């Protein structure tokens, strides 16, 4: 238990480093596709404007930027609440959004501890973050979001960490990456401590779980859609450098070393297992699940 608590504590203290991945073309492309589909759903449901938007785990503010880029010009610009447990992330989001968003409020809190007025926002957007929570915290968080939404409001979220995210033909890349990273540890004399701890992001729950989750929280499931994105070396290095990702892949190893090992293994293993684009640059395809639900 002490080892598990220590690992969780170290991950909680992770320096904010989400911006580089959020600024990759792959991240923007797949989220733009998700958001465009969400806007179409709102239009089909009769929405003709938004007054309040909640951005959960706002990070660098990329999701808000993409939402505003995708909304019809006739819709007035909504007030935005940016929620994040990282004060550094909120400062970054503010610097990026203050010229785009007229009414911007920063909320320094985790989603599990969120307290915003009931029925105060029209939509909630949660970009690639729900998988970091336990099943119990996911359900509680979605219930909190539902209370914050106006009647008929929408919850939109996506994740690249679910069971079907990794097509079967891409699995050799992941296996080889872990093997290469473990060899890195051996070469550097880094020992693995025995632990049964498994980070939530490493559990890869199935699509059907997330479909049922929103319904259990009192939402009506509107749509569940998968998007495929071809991810190149830079994007994989940023993902592999996330402490949650590295800790899940290399359980028991010191987190900083796990990050270095996973990141450094991307290049050679991508060269072996990646497909090639028109510029002969290797990539691995990953799927993202986008969920749309209505209160």
Description:
The chain is an alpha/beta fold and 295 residues long. The protein is 44% helix and 21% strand. A hairpin with a 5-residue loop joins β7 (275-276) and β8.
List the topology elements.
Blueprint lengths: L1 H11 L6 H4 L2 H20 L7 E5 L5 H9 L8 E6 L2 H11 L6 E5 L12 E7 L7 H14 E11 L11 H17 L19 H10 L3 E13 H8 L2 H7 L5 H19 L1 E2 L5 E13 L1
Parallel strand pairs: 1-2, 1-4, 2-3, 4-5
Antiparallel strand pairs: 5-8, 6-8, 7-8
Helix pairs in contact: 3-4, 7-11, 9-11, 10-11
The largest sheet is: 8 strands, mixed
Can you tell me the overall shape? globular
**Can you count the beta strands?**
8
User: Which range best describes the helical content: under 10%, 10-25%, 25-40%, 40-55%, 55-70% or over 70%?
Assistant: 40-55%
The second-level CATH architecture of the domain at 2-165 and 203-232 and 284-294 is: 3-Layer(aba) Sandwich
What is the CATH H-level superfamily of the domain at 2-165 and 203-232 and 284-294? Vaccinia Virus protein VP39
Order of helices and strands: HHHEHEHEEHEHHEHHHEE
- Low-pLDDT regions: 1-16
């Amino acid at each position: 238990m002490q080892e598990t608590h220590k690992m969780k504590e170290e991950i909680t203290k992770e320096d904010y480093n989400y911006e580089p991945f959020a600024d990759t073309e792959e991240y923007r492309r797949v989220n733009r596709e998700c958001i465009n589909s969400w806007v179409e759903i709102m239009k089909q449901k009769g929405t003709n404007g938004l007054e309040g938007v909640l951005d959960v785990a706002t990070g660098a503010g990329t999701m808000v930027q993409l939402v505003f880029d995708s909304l019809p010009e006739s819709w007035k610009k909504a007030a935005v609440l940016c929620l994040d447990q990282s004060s550094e992330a909120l400062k970054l989001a503010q610097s990026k959004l203050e010229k785009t968003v007229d009414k911007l409020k920063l909320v320094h809190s985790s989603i599990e501890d969120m307290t915003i007025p009931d029925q105060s926002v029209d939509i909630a957007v949660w970009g690639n973050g729900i998988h970091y929570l336990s099943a119990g915290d996911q359900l509680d968080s979605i219930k909190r979001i539902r209370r914050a939404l106006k009647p008929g409001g929408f919850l939109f979220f996506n994740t690249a960490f679910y069971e079907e995210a990794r097509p079967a033909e891409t699995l050799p890349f992941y296996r080889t990456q872990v093997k290469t990273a473990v060899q890195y540890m051996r070469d550097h004399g880094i020992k693995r401590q025995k632990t049964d701890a498994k980070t939530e992001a490493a559990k890869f729950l199935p699509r059907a779980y997330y479909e049922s989750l929103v319904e259990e929280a009192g939402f009506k499931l509107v749509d569940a859609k998968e998007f495929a994105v071809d991810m190149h070396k830079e994007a994989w290095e940023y993902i592999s450098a996330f402490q949650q990702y590295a800790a899940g892949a290399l359980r028991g190893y010191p987190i900083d070393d796990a990050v270095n090992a996973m990141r450094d293994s991307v290049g050679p293993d991508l060269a072996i297992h990646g497909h090639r684009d028109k510029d002969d640059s290797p990539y691995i395809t990953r799927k993202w699940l986008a969920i749309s639900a209505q209160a």
